Amino acid sequence: MSTTPPAKVQSGTTDWDVQAKNNRAPANSQVLKQGDTFAIVDQLGEIGGAGDSEQGVYHLGTRFLSTWELLINNKRPLLLNSTMKEDNSSFVVQMTTPELPQPDHVLPQGTLHVFRSMLLDGGTFYEHLRLKNYSRSPVDLEVEYRFASDFRDIFEVRGEHRAQRGELLEAKVDKSAVALAYHGLDDQKREVNVAFDGKVKIIEPRRCVLQVHLGGGEETTLHATAECHTEKSGYVKKPDTPSRSHAEAVTGWSNRLRQTEAERVEIFTSNEEFNGWLNRSNADLDMLISDTIYGRYPYAGVPWFATPFGRDGIITALETLWVRPKLARGVLSFLAATQATEVDPSIESEPGKIVHEMRDGEMAALGEVPFKRYYGTVDATPLFVILAGQYYRRTGDREFIEFIWHNIRRAVNWIDEYGDVDGDGFVEYQSHNERGLTHQCWKDSNDSIFHSDGRDAKGAIAVSEVQGYVYQAKLLAAELADVMDDAAWASELRQQAVRLKEDFNARFWVPSIGTFAIALDGDKMACKVRNSNAGHLLFSGIVDPCHAASVAATLTDERAFNGWGIRTISAGEVRYNPMSYHNGSIWPHDTAMCAAGLARYGFRDECARVIAGLFDASLFNDLHRLPELFCGFDRMPGHAPTLYPVACSPQAWATGAAFLLLQSILGLTFSPTKPQVQFENPRLPDFLNWVRIQNLRIGDGVVDLAFHRHPRDVGMNVERKEGDLQIVVIG
């Protein structure tokens, strides 16, 4: 089994797993992202020092900088420290130099301070370089930048071979700038303009040397920029913006962050480490969110999935809905605008279907990968309806629901008309072309859906969690139909949901394993494999109460729960591999949805145990950042979780896990009929003595709440309440 992630580009006849190259960037690489641009640099702020790796500055799916190195007097500076700013806006590196010979003396090591600050804004990479001479003697310096661009598509960087590429154009060299350009096979010109300020001694296509004289105790500041341009911007992306000064870019970041902070719910707890996890999750989410022409959307993850994914965006919005309702509106707007309108097997498109993935790079434009706009997912469409229903519960925003009502109706129609491939009442997937995904659920590796004896599931496959999503979607669509004064359709939807729940519990339940089959194959044979998707079933509410305790037990026994999180496939199953992508690894979003399902059915102790595991995992990760996934090996006392070698970090739905976990343990829900927030049997895990929630807006009101853990229960105090809203505690 592969220990590298699928590129989300498999098919039944061709293995499209795009392998990440072996020469990876160091584990301590740092990530910057803003809009459709992201950068991966090493501890020194360098690009390319690790060899053939994923480091670089990327814009709209293409690497625009593949080399970025700094030399002073032909020597590489020595690292003192490097840190990412807490809000992810900039990366700061502090260095010094080894001994630097001068005409009449030698500048000792540790005398020149080198300060680098890097950020992204509007498609431009900025470096602010400050040099200070701490000696009493003057010093003459040659500051050299080395740079290059390979203009490789991100799929090429991931390892996909191309038989033919476009043309690297001749560099244009100006007095203080170099323009590097590439004319792609898609007839699009991509260009990066690398510019410097200061006294230029040498400027060539791959380097620039600046002369600096510093008297004793003096300092100076230099700036360098790499401005990315494309002839055509993406069809839903905002166009490239003109480069600004470094100071203007810093101000722009500050203004955006202030606006975001003013809108969101603030959470404080008694545990500073837990606060650190929440703060990191907020900062990562802010970084991953991009402005599109349809609204704000969380891109899935850096580096491989820095683009819109339907399922990922919806689940991220659901996880964070109670603290960031405006993000859910942006996700719904984007997905409604890109909803499929026609049948096109080449991109798995059918009327009403919600998009899976969208790409801007050259290979997508040419069809070398099928993801320019690809609809090969079975779950995004019911999840879209769920998000719309939950958004209305959270906000009461009838005007927006009316605006996307036709999209909601079309999504439900897709479930009924196209989703049920064989007419058995369950929603299935089956690839319609040889280049798309074999498995079109969230576990979309080629080997992820299988029988207990290891055989692949074949045919039109009905995965379990999707039936739960459809059940929940029908009930929430019924609530929205009531809002839209369509009582007849609401009644019909509720009847359909009741039938689906009955049929699902009858067909998918497997007594011998104490949980639900992961899927039914095309012959309606159950895939009797213990799996984490059962937690999604609890999350949706489709599980008959008579099965809930058994499902909870299988999710939290030692085969499934490894001390950090819940394995995608339980230990002991025939394809179990803790190093695999989907057959035994731990995904924070998956574990969080399982915990939410446990809480929904009243298993608060189990929920608290799972929360504690993921929280502990966050403590061992750099910046408290949970990655896309990590390996499912048993937890060893005093040791960190085993990292998955090519996981995205940050990843949007991993950042949202902390907020869903806290909501679940507090039993926090919103009323579909009035401005009301409910807390059902609220609990706090042992590591939290108190939690304060501020600026929680419900309708036109706002409330501040405090929860305190007592030996037998949790007490709640209302510290501020403005407007017409209700607060209800149950249990």
TrEMBL record:
Residues 315-610 form the Mannosylglycerate hydrolase MGH1-like glycoside hydrolase domain. InterPro entries: 6-hairpin_glycosidase_sf (IPR008928), 6hp_glycosidase-like_sf (IPR012341), GDE_N_bis (IPR032856), MGH1-like_GH (IPR054491). It comes from the Bacteria. Residues 32-223 form the Putative glycogen debranching enzyme N-terminal domain. It holds the Pfam family GDE_N_bis. This is Amylo-alpha-1,6-glucosidase. It comes from Novipirellula rosea.
